[in-house]
Amino acid sequence: MLDSPISKEEISQFLDKNGRIVRWPKKNYDKINVLKYLQEKFEPDKKYSEIEGHL
After folding, report:
1. Which of 9, 28, 44, 55 is most buried, most CB within 10 Å of its CB?
2. Burial environment of residue 11 by CB neighbours within 10 A (0 to 12, 13 to 18, 19 or more)
3. For the whole model, what pTM was predicted?
4. Does residue 1 lie within any of the structural domains?
């Protein structure tokens, strides 16, 4: 479910100009799209520090 790419345009209402999430969606469909967007920011099997995780 979370392996298809998502475009910024699909979730732009939830992001600021730097691509950071500024508002959490209410609808499940939008929540899933935001989670897909976040998933694309991380590499599989890589460990991140707390600071690195705060994109």
Report:
1. 55
2. buried
3. 0.75
4. no
